[in-house]
Design a protein that fits this description.
The protein contains two helices and twelve strands. With 192 residues, the chain is an alpha+beta fold. Strand 1 and strand 2 form a beta hairpin. The chain folds into two domains: 37 residues; 130 residues, Jelly Rolls (Sandwich), CATH 2.60.120.10.
Length: 192
C-alpha cells in the first residue's frame, strides 16, 4: 500500500512563496525572449538601409505583365509594408487594377502614364508624386521610347486585383492577355 500524500504546506517554506517562485521561474524566460524580440525589431527598424542600384536584383512579378520587373528595397511585399522599385519597358501596360493597400509612386525615369477611373490620364516624370488610396482603380503605362522606373511605397502586403471595364474583378491571365494584345500593337517588349 502506498502512503498518503502529504499536501500540507511545508512549515519552513510557505505555499504562497513556493507558487511565486515557480511562477517567476516559468515567466522569466518568456519575458526575456519577448524583450529580446522587441529589441531586435527596434534594432532592425532603427538601422539605415542603403540600396545601391548596381546591387539590386529585379525579377518578374507573378500576376503582372512580363514587361514589368521589381526589386525589393525594404520590407517584404508579400507580408508587410514595403518599398520597391518597378521597371517597365517602353509601351508596357499594367491593366486596370486596384490594391488592398495605399500606394505611393515616385517616378525615376521615363514617362509614366497613370490612368485613374473616371479621370483624365496624367503623365508623371522624374520627381513627381502620385498617391493612390486603397481600392482605387487605375492603369499604368510606360509611354514614350524610354524605359520607366519608379519607387513604390505600399503600407501593407502587396496584392493586385484586375478589373474589366465595368469594374468587375477578372482573373490576372485574362487582364494580362488583353494588355499584351494592346502592347503587341504598340511594340512593347518583355523585360526579360
Amino acid at each position: 500500500m502506498s502512503a498518503p500524500i502529504d499536501t500540507r504546506p511545508c512549515p519552513n517554506y510557505p505555499s504562497s512563496t513556493l507558487k511565486a517562485s515557480v511562477k517567476k521561474l516559468l515567466l522569466t524566460p518568456l519575458f526575456l525572449v519577448l524583450f529580446g524580440l522587441i529589441l531586435a525589431a527596434q534594432e532592425m527598424a532603427d538601422k539605415p538601409i542603403f540600396s545601391k542600384a548596381s546591387n539590386q536584383t529585379y525579377a518578374p512579378v507573378h500576376g503582372v505583365p512580363d514587361c514589368a520587373t521589381l526589386a525589393v528595397l525594404k520590407g517584404d511585399p508579400n507580408t508587410t509594408a514595403s518599398v520597391v522599385e518597378i521597371k517597365l519597358t517602353p509601351g508596357c501596360i499594367v491593366p486596370w487594377h486596384w490594391h488592398s493597400v495605399n500606394e505611393n509612386v515616385v517616378p525615376l525615369t521615363g514617362l509614366l502614364e497613370m490612368y485613374m477611373k473616371d479621370e483624365k490620364p496624367v503623365i508623371l516624370v522624374s520627381g513627381d508624386y502620385n498617391f493612390l488610396p486603397a481600392k482605387h482603380i487605375h492603369q499604368d503605362k510606360c509611354s514614350g521610347s524610354k524605359p520607366c522606373s519608379a519607387i513604390v511605397f505600399v503600407d501593407g502586403p502587396f496584392d493586385i486585383h484586375y478589373v474589366d471595364k465595368s469594374g468587375a474583378e477578372i482573373p490576372a491571365d485574362q487582364a494580362i492577355a488583353a494588355a499584351e494584345k494592346l502592347m503587341s500593337k504598340s511594340g512593347a517588349k518583355p523585360s526579360h
